[in-house]
Amino acid sequence: MTAQLGRRDDVAAARAAALAGLDTSRWPAKLPVRDRLTLLFDPGSFVEDGLLANARSEGLPADGVVTGVGRIEGRLVAVIAHDFTVKAGSWGELGCEKQIRILERADRDLLPVVYLVDSAGGRLNDQMGFFPGRRGASRIFHLQVRLSGRVPQVCCLLGPSAAGGAYMPAFTDWVGMVEGNASMYLASPRVAEKVTGEVTTLEEMGGARMHATVSGCGDEVFGSDGEAIAAARLLLTYLPDSFRDRPAVAEPRPPALPHWPDDLVPSDPNQPYDVNDVIDRIVDEGSFFEIKSGWATEMVCGLGRIEGRVVGVVANQPSVRSGAIFVDSADKAARFISLCDAFNIPIVFLQDVPGFMVGVAVERQGIIRHGAKMLVAMASAEVPRFTVVLRKAYAAGYYAMCAPGFEPRATLALPTATIGTMAPEASANAMYANRIAQIEDPGERAAFVARRVAEQEAEVNLLRMGSDLVVDAVVEPGDMRAELVARLAAADGWDRTRDRRHHVVSPV
Ligand SMILES: CCC(=O)SCCNC(=O)CCNC(=O)[C@H](O)C(C)(C)COP(=O)(O)OP(=O)(O)OC[C@H]1O[C@@H](n2cnc3c(N)ncnc32)[C@H](O)[C@@H]1OP(=O)(O)O
Questions:
Q1: How far out from the chain centre does Cα 384 lie?
Q2: What highest taxon heads this organism's lineage (predicted)?
Q3: Which atom of ligand 1 is found nearest the CA of 123?
C-alpha cells in the first residue's frame, strides 16, 4: 500500500514537474510553451498526450515538445509545440514519437495541424533516436508531406528552426515568423563560416524579415508570439477542416469602400495604381487576409470573403514593377492557387498585366519554368475560377492569369480593359520595325506609327472581344462586386471534375 502510494506520488511529482517546465528567464522575449497554447486554443479545450515522456530517464519536461488536440473557434485542431527551454526544443526519440503520433492522428481523423515551432532540430546527443530509424525525423517529414493538401497545416515560427528542423515549417501552408526570435536555416552562421568561410549573422541568413521579403520561405512577420498565434487562428477560419470540406460561410458584410470612382483604374495603361484599392471594393470589409505580403509584391495573393463566401484573390499589382510577372511572383501565385484548389476555395483573378518580365536576368533565373509552374497550377485547379480584366491583359501574362482557354467560369472585363499579345505600340513597332526605320522624315514616321497603333487598337477592341465571345460580360466598375456575388452563388453547386482524393500543395 505504502509502495503504491509512493508510486502515485512519484507520478504526481513528475506530472507537476513536466507541467511547470524549466526556467524561462533566459528568454525574456519569448512566451513559455504552455502560455502559447493558452493563446492558441479556446479556454480549457486542450487535451495533451505524452506529458510524462522522458520523465523516468532524463527528466526532460514532456521531452521538449507538447502535443495534443484543442479547439479553435470550436473546431478540433492538432498541435505540435516545442519547448525551447528543454534542450532548445530539440527532437529526441520520445519527442519524435509524440510528433509522429499526433500527425498520424491528424491524418486518421482529418484534423488541421498548428505547429508552434521553436527548435534546434534533431537532438544531437540522441542521434539513434531521431536520425536513422523509421520513427525519427524522416517519418515526421513523410507525414507532413502526406498531410499537405489533405488538412490545413499552419506554422507559427516563434524561435529557431535549425538544420533538419527547418523543413518542418517548409512543409506547412503558411509560416508566420516573430521578428527577432524566429529563424530558419539549414546551417547556423557558425557552421556556414566553417564550411564556406562566409561570415554572416543569424538575422541576415535566416531571420524573419529576410525570409518574408527575400527567400519567400516565410509568409508574414509579427511583433510578438501573441500576434502570430492570433493570425494563425484567423487564417484557419478561411480554411475547411480537410480537403473533403468547404470553408465555412461567414455573415456577409459590405465592402470597406462601396463607391468605385471612375478613375480608380486609370485608362492610361502605364499609370500605376494600387490594386488593393480594387480589392477593398470587391471583398467584404476587413476580410482580406494577404499571403506573403512582403515578397514578390508585384503579385498580390490573399484570402477574402465575398458576401461571406471565402475566395482566393490573385491580382497583378500595377504599382510595383508595372505588375509584370517575375520568377518569384509566378511561384507565389502558383503556390497560392494550389492552396486554394486543395481546400475548395474559388479563385478570382484580377488582371492588369503587361506580361512576364523579359530580359537576360529573368531568362537566366528560369522565368520559363517558373511561369510554367504558375500556368500548371492555374490550369490544374478544379475550383471555380473567375477572371476580371481590369485594364491591360497582355502576352503570356494574360494566359497565366486565367485566360478564357483555361476554362474560368467567366471572363469579365471593365470598360477600360484591353487584351492583346502586347501593347498596341509595341505590337506596331515589332511588326513594322523595318518600314519605320526607312522613313526619314520624323513627322511622316510618327504619323505612320500612329496609324499602325490605331490599327492594333482596333484589333483588340473590347466590343470585338465581347462580340467574339472572348469576354463573357463587360461590367461597369461599380457593378463588379455584385456581378461576382451573383456568379459565385451560381457556381455554388460545383464539384470536382476528376476523381482525385487530394494533392500536395507544391512548395515555392
Ligand atoms: C534532422 C537533422 C537535424 O536536425 S541535426 C540538428 C542540428 N542542429 C543544430 O545544429 C542546432 C544547434 N543549436 C543551436 O544552434 C542553438 O541551440 C539554438 C537552436 C540557436 C538555440 O540557442 P539558445 O536558445 O541560445 O540555446 P542554447 O544553444 O544555449 O542551448 C540550450 C540547451 O540546448 C542544448 N542544445 C541545443 N541544440 C541542441 C541539439 N540540436 N541537440 C541537443 N541539445 C541541444 C544545448 O546544449 C543547451 O543544453 P544545456 O542547457 O547546456 O544542457
A1: 19
A2: Bacteria
A3: 41
CA 161 to ligand 1 center in whole angstroms: 10
16-238, what's its fold?
2-enoyl-CoA Hydratase; Chain A, domain 1 (3.90.226)
Q: What Å distances lie between residue 445 and 25, 433, 448, CA to CA?
A: 76, 11, 5
Element (H, E) at 392: strand 385-394
Q: What is residue 498's predicted lDDT score, i.e. its pLDDT?
A: 59
Other Cβ atoms less than 10 A from the Cβ of 10: the count is: 12
CA distances from 380 to 367, 451, 454 (A): 20, 41, 37
Q: Retrieve residue 226's grid coordinates.
A: 501573441
How far is C-alpha 322 from the geometric centre of its chain's CA atoms?
A: 22
Q: Which atom of ligand 1 is nearest the CA belonging to 191?
A: 10
Give the residue extent of every domain in the chain. Answer: 16-238, 275-417+471-491
**pTM (predicted TM-score):** 0.95
Q: What is the tens place of the pLDDT at every residue in 320-379?
A: 999 999 999 999 999 999 999 999 999 999 999 999 999 999 999 999 999 999 999 999
Cα-based torsion angle of the residue sequence 456, 461, 465, 471 in order, rounded to the nearest 10 degrees: 120
Q: Is residue 408 helix, strand or coil?
A: coil
Give the mutation target among 85, 124, 140, 144 for probing the ligand 1 site: most ligand atoms within 8 A of CB: 124
- Domain spanning 275-417+471-491, CATH architecture: Alpha-Beta Complex (3.90)
Among 88, 84, 233, 112, residue whose Cα is nearest residue 172: 112
Report the distance separating Cα 297 and Cα 69, nearest Å.
36
Q: How far apart are CA 283 and CA 308, in angstroms?
A: 9
| 11-31 residue pLDDT tens | 999 999 999 999 999 999 999
CB 129 within 8 Å of CB 89: no
- Asked if 16-238 and 275-417+471-491 have one fold, the answer is yes
**Ligand 1 pocket, 164 CB below 6 A?**
yes
